[in-house]
Specification:
6 helices; about 90 residues
């Protein structure tokens, strides 16, 4: 289920201490949100029940600028598209 995978990636990205692992998680997050059969708002909304409030707060505090640039190179998507996905996740509340 894409919402479970999304929640797993959000939960894990805050624990990453190696930059290359974190930007791979961000690539997975963006790909799940953009290319699953669910609409982006629906997948994010459904994933909320699997994300702890503490981890979501930590996610919101992370500066993902370098990760977004790396994802741009890997996924071949516009930087703004990747940033929009991350910002949508940062907007959710539990």
């Amino acid at each position: 289920m894409p919402e479970v995978l999304l929640a797993m990636k959000i939960n894990s990205v805050v624990l990453r201490d190696k930059e290359h692992k974190r930007y791979k998680d961000i690539c997975d997050i963006v790909a799940l949100c953009l290319f699953s059969e669910l609409e982006i708002n629906e997948i994010i909304d459904k994933s909320k029940k699997f994300i702890s409030k503490n981890k979501l707060e930590k996610f919101k505090k992370i500066e993902f600028r370098h990760d977004i640039e790396n994802c741009n190179n890997i996924l071949g998507l516009e930087t703004n598209t990747i940033k929009t996905v991350i910002d949508k996740i940062k907007e959710i509340s539990i």
